[in-house]
């Protein structure tokens, strides 16, 4: 009984969903992301086209144009992985999604394959924002990694107290 009363909260972690160069969200060349209108987060300039689950949780959104996936972590944190900028106009070309809404995923599980060459050629940018869409209502403090490079499923991007 006393263990629950004095139990310290632990830090939760969000892992990199894609391998590449870590970039501050404020440097994303799109005000919706850079001004954190959608929430706290970080971005990655991908060097690999594999997108993996950043947390253990449930897929809650797959964009009809396949360029974005939303995952709800077990603690209720909602994470949006938005591959590239203005990629909705690609209408799914260059994206192969391997999960469906309602699927349970584990950290590192492949969710999508992206043809980075195609996206580089046809979209505004390949930079990939990773945003906590319910951060504005959670009253949590998020800490962004100091790492400059990410390895999909291995690098911790963000931590927060749960």
Automatic annotation (TrEMBL):
Keyword Transport tagged: yes
Annotated ranges, domain PTS EIIA type-1: 30-134
Protein keywords: Kinase, Phosphotransferase system, Sugar transport, Transferase, Transport
InterPro entries found in the cross-reference section: Dup_hybrid_motif (IPR011055), PTS_EIIA_1_perm (IPR001127), PTS_EIIA_component (IPR050890)
Localization annotation: Cytoplasm
Protein name: PTS glucose transporter subunit IIA
């Amino acid at each position: 009984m006393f263990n629950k009363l004095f139990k310290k909260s632990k830090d939760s972690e969000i892992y990199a969903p894609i391998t590449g160069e870590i970039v501050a969200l404020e440097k994303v060349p799109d005000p919706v992301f850079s001004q954190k209108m959608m929430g706290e987060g970080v971005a990655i300039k991908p060097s690999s086209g594999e997108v993996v689950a950043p947390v253990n949780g449930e897929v809650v959104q797959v964009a009809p144009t396949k360029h974005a996936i939303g995952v709800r972590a077990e603690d209720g944190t909602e994470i949006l992985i938005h591959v590239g900028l203005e990629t909705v106009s690609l209408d799914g070309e260059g994206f192969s999604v391997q999960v469906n809404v309602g699927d349970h995923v584990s950290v590192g599980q492949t969710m999508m394959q992206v043809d980075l060459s195609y996206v580089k050629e046809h979209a505004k940018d390949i930079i990939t924002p990773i945003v906590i869409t319910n951060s504005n209502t959670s009253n949590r403090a998020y800490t962004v990694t100091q790492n400059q490079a990410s390895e999909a499923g291995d690098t911790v991007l963000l931590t927060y107290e749960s």
